[in-house]
Amino acid sequence: MSEIYCENLCITYSQKEILHNLNIKIRKNKITALVGSNGSGKSTLLKTIARIVMPSSGSVYLDGKSIHRYSSQEVAKILAILPQSPEAPQEFTVERLVQYGRFPRQSFFGSLSPKDYKAIDWALEVTDMQDLRKKRLSDLSGGQKQRAWIAMALAQEGEYLFLDEPTTYLDMRHQIEVLNILENLNRTQKKTIVMVVHDINHAAKIADHIIAIKNGRILTEGNTKQILDEKIIEDIFGVKGLIISNRIDNTPLFFPLEVSYV
Ligand SMILES: Nc1ncnc2c1ncn2[C@@H]1O[C@H](COP(=O)(O)OP(=O)(O)OP(=O)(O)O)[C@@H](O)[C@H]1O
């Protein structure tokens, strides 16, 4: 199992430092949620860990070597990233999209092997997309589309799955559906998942570890019980509210009340 961590990570855009000196170790076989207000640097952090953005100083290490010294194909065999608004030609079928997930593993001749077909079938099965595999992306609902993209990322068969706001734009039912798929993937396949999530209750529902980013720094990190705290959430999001208890399993939930101006 590969190991990913970052040391003294700084990111600069147009001479402005966005992320300042971050040290993070990704917990293997766990779900980590990155939370924080708009513009705090969550997506930038996710993209840097996934080798898409180059740090201005510090490094992301994959098995002890800077991730930026691996080829993109080597990295793609280990991690798959689903960006915030992925795009593909709308006439693509689900199957065709998912096939692209096999790209880093395909032979020089680019033809799909029985192993590729097996991985594609598995990814469609896990995301409950088998019946929709011949449908065009243009004919899918938002929730189905998101599942198709998750299937594509899964077909890569990496140990790590990085997702940027996978539940955004989905209605409540589809949000829960996607969270359940991710939770199952982690619990049954031991996938290590790192996801940017806006809804703190979603993070609390499935994450083993929550990292709160504020102004490009780690404000705090911990498990659900440690982070689901009225003062901490006010600090992260600038919102006052109440921690209430889910009467089914007593897990904490945050109920927002008002904007905090402190
Ligand atoms: N390519 C870019 N060039 C210049 N500045 C950028 C670029 N991408 C992001 N930024 C800036 O970096 C900061 C962090 O952005 P980022 O998208 O990482 O935040 P975020 O926490 O993911 O926000 P959101 O929750 O709104 O998606 C913001 O101020 C943003 O404007």
UniProtKB/TrEMBL annotation:
<keyword id="KW-0410">Iron transport</keyword>
<dbReference type="InterPro" id="IPR051535">
    <property type="entry name" value="Siderophore_ABC-ATPase"/>
</dbReference>
<keyword id="KW-0408">Iron</keyword>
<dbReference type="InterPro" id="IPR017871">
    <property type="entry name" value="ABC_transporter-like_CS"/>
</dbReference>
<keyword id="KW-1003">Cell membrane</keyword>
<protein>
    <submittedName>
        <fullName>ABC transporter ATP-binding protein</fullName>
    </submittedName>
</protein>
<dbReference type="Pfam" id="PF00005">
    <property type="entry name" value="ABC_tran"/>
</dbReference>
<keyword id="KW-0547">Nucleotide-binding</keyword>
<keyword id="KW-0067">ATP-binding</keyword>
<keyword id="KW-0472">Membrane</keyword>
<keyword id="KW-0813">Transport</keyword>
<dbReference type="InterPro" id="IPR003439">
    <property type="entry name" value="ABC_transporter-like_ATP-bd"/>
</dbReference>
<keyword id="KW-0406">Ion transport</keyword>
<dbReference type="GO" id="GO:0006826">
    <property type="term" value="P:iron ion transport"/>
</dbReference>
<feature type="domain" description="ABC transporter">
    <location>
        <begin position="4"/>
        <end position="240"/>
    </location>
</feature>
<dbReference type="GO" id="GO:0016887">
    <property type="term" value="F:ATP hydrolysis activity"/>
</dbReference>
<dbReference type="InterPro" id="IPR027417">
    <property type="entry name" value="P-loop_NTPase"/>
</dbReference>
<dbReference type="InterPro" id="IPR003593">
    <property type="entry name" value="AAA+_ATPase"/>
</dbReference>
<dbReference type="GO" id="GO:0005524">
    <property type="term" value="F:ATP binding"/>
</dbReference>
<dbReference type="GO" id="GO:0005886">
    <property type="term" value="C:plasma membrane"/>
</dbReference>
